[in-house]
Amino acid sequence: MPLRITLQDYPGADPAMLTTAVTRFRRELERKLGGEAEAAFKAFQNASESSADELTKEEHRLASAYHAAYEAARTAGFRDLGDVQEAYFDVRLT
User: Fold this and answer.
1) Cα torsion 89, 79, 69, 2: sign
2) pLDDT tens, residue order, the chain (94 aa)
3) Can you state the percent helix, strand and coil of the chain, rounding each to 5?
């Protein structure tokens, strides 16, 4: 998947734990979106920068799918990490 995922603002964590968290996040995102991951990410970005009436039905569908997949992946990624108030997974196209 041509997405770069990093865990941000989680200071003092063991590097192996961070790697595991990112791996779990990526795995869940891929499981939820399959081959649509890149298109869904782009649609989500477009939706966040546009008004709802500027999006096609497909962009709406993909953006919603990305949002749901991100939330599920976030839960999976943060499992076993403890307090994560400021931490977040940053996703970018490579």
Assistant:
1) positive
2) 589 999 999 887 789 999 999 999 999 999 999 999 999 999 999 999 987 788 899 999 999 999 999 999 999 999 988 767 889 999 999 8
3) 65, 15, 25
